[in-house]
Amino acid sequence: MLNFPKRGKRRPYIYTESSGIESIASITAFNNCVNSTAKRRTDKLWAAPIRRDLLTRSIPRNSIAFSRRNPHNCSLANRKLHHSTFMKFLFDLFPVILFFITFKIYGIYAATAVAIAATFAQIGWVWFRHRKVETMLWVSLVIIVIFGSATLILQDETFIKWKPSVLYWLFAGALLLAHAIFKKNLIRVMMKEQISLPEPIWSRLNASWAAFFALMGGANLYVAFNYSTETWVNFKLFGFMGLMLAFVVLQGLMLGKYMEEDKEDKEA
After folding, report:
1. Is residue 213 scored above 70 in pLDDT?
2. How far is 2 from 41, CA to CA, in rounded Å?
3. This prediction's pTM
4. CA dist 225 to 161, 162, 230, Å?
5. How do residues 165-204 score in pLDDT, each as one tens digit?
6. DSSP the chain
7. For the segment 44-94, what is each residue's pLDDT rounded down to a tens digit?
């Protein structure tokens, strides 16, 4: 189920990999919209007389409810969510993109300084737009300041190469510890407004993201200390982005199956 925010109401901003996580909701919602409309073609809703003027007044044309009555509008129903997720994904990559460009022109140390400044700017923009900065964005700022400053002061690029791994491992640890100690599924907290899943699937999804972040941290160190700095910088942008997109698409396809089964059980 998708719940678009009411006009004038802003959703709280949740930093970084949540853009990838919310992409799962976007992909799954589109698949379910298409699948559900195929079944509803034979439903009584199509046989019952419906006043077109009443339908268009009471149901927004970009809503999931309207899309279920007209399969051609599935893309319209998800356009807002797709656009929001894509823009958020690009915004999360803002410091990395600037780091990449600056490195190609001026080198690793200038790129590190730019990444620190870009993260400060990112926090400032989030605060200006939402009047709230999520914890993980503050954590990212602290890490880039510590490791970036060490790189600049000691003129040693080793520190900045450790930064992505530390951040990803913190993500993984937060997901696992929150679930094990506080019985709180952070993935469910971020996605519960977009999709509805059985509890075992939420737990499996939380564990899969924790494992993915742990592997990303390991992959970063492997590339950083076995290949050139230029190769590592390329991998930091294109490699991480490609792995993230592949993982999100795979998760979306898997979740679509479970959500469809859950929906059929409720209708029965």
Report:
1. yes
2. 21
3. 0.69
4. 9, 10, 12
5. 999 999 999 999 999 998 899 888 888 777 888 888 889 9
6. ---PPPTT-PPPP--TTHHHHHHHHHHHHHHHHHHHHHHHTTSHHHHS---HHHHHHHS-TTSHHHHHH-GGGHHHHHHHHHHHHHHHHHHHTHHHHHHHHHHHHH-HHHHHHHHHHHHHHHHHHHHHHHS---HHHHHHHHHHHHHHHHHHHHT-THHHHHHHHHHHHHHHHHHHHHHHTS---HHHHHHTTT----HHHHHHHHHHHHHHHHHHHHHHHHHHHHS-HHHHHHIIIIIHHHHHHHHHHHHHHHHHHHHHHHHHHHH-
7. 444 444 444 444 444 444 444 444 445 445 555 455 555 566 667 667 788
Q: Using one digit for the tens of pLDDT, what is the confidence trace for 127-164? A: 998 888 888 889 999 999 999 999 999 999 999 999 99
Say which residues have a Cβ less than 8 Å from residue 153's Cβ, sequence separation at least 6. Answer: none
C-beta separation of 2 from 223 below 8 A: no
